[in-house]
Amino acid sequence: KEPVLEIQNLCVDYGLGKESVQAVRDVSLTLHRGEVLGLAGESGSGKSTLAYGLTRLLPPPGVITGGKVIYHQPGGDPVDVLRLSDAGLRQFRWAETSIVFQGAMNSLNPVHTVASQLMDVIAAHEPKMSKSARLARAKELLKLVGISPDRLGSYPHQLSGGMRQRVMIGMALALEPQVVIMDEPTTALDVVMQRQILRQLVDLRERLGFSVLFITHDLSLLVEFSDRIAIMYGGRIVEEAPAAKLYKDPLHPYSHGLLNAFPPLRGERRELSGIPGSPPDLRSMPTGCAFHPRCPKAFDPCRTDLPLLAAPADRTEEDRTGGERTVACWLHPGA
Length: 335
Ligand code: ATP
Ligand code: SF4
Ligand code: MG
What we know:
The strands form two sheets. The protein has a seven-stranded mixed β-sheet, sandwiched between helices. The protein has a four-stranded antiparallel β-sheet with strand order 2-1-4-5, covered by helices on one side. The protein is built from eleven helices and eleven strands. It is of the alpha/beta class. Helices cover about 30% and strands about 20% of the residues. It is globular. It binds adenosine-5'-triphosphate, iron/sulfur cluster and magnesium ion (MG). The site of magnesium ion has 4 residues, from helix 1.
């Protein structure tokens, strides 16, 4: 599998000096060409911070304090994203990697029609394209996301939430990016709508060949739609595995808890239990494993020693050597 985006040891702080909190801690994650990688974790685990950090869209006082982001252009040299010039960054953001923010469906401009907003995105990057060509492209994009072209003249308030979300996805796809990052694009929508939109995104991925980093706290959606899943807790990735393996055999007690916190969309029903306690306070992170105060299986080393992500020694040869799955938990120490 060919990597398209490699995040290496990324660290992000909010604030400087003594007042700062570390929201993303030493995160390494690889997105491969054509895959859907799901990122899950409770509120505050650092998912959005990771997405903003890697696209360099962090709002102040966010600062990247370490690590690397490498983007592999098709047929070109690898790009060191954190060192890109402003011009290079603009190109990277829209044409190579495009991001649909949390709550983006409410960021459409209320006083402009859908057509004019789509055409503006195209014009910003293809200034020489004629107006009629841009209109045709806008029509095509709407069709792609399942909206009838007679909606071109609609204003955002005339569309349902689901349609506004689709328009945002259409905009994100306008320049045929290699990577699409979706940060909880569907939480404001009902479950049926969420699934429809995700299914459509996965279909488009198959047709257009882009890769997706999909961020949500609803692990049951990820299990159904992603190829691989990474679980985040307290700013760190605590487990990463192919979706089916994570579902069948979650190794980290937090992953286990998350799986039991949402109703499964299909397959056997698990008893919903959720996870007792609340996410850690970044200003006073627990020592050792950050999950230990909430972990039903915590034992001695958990309180003092930080477990690092590693291939679990107690799983199959394939799991251990194929780079198929990793976990950061003292119950499953590395080989
Ligand atoms: P959610 O599921 O609620 O979107 P998330 O996983 O995306 O959560 P982030 O928004 O990345 O989490 O936040 C990670 C941590 O960083 C949180 O503890 C949050 O309080 C902190 N944080 C986020 N933005 C800021 C900011 N502007 N200043 C200070 N701390 C921040
Ligand atoms: Fe629980 Fe210990 Fe594993 Fe942390 S390292 S998840 S506290 S068993
Ligand atoms: Mg978020």
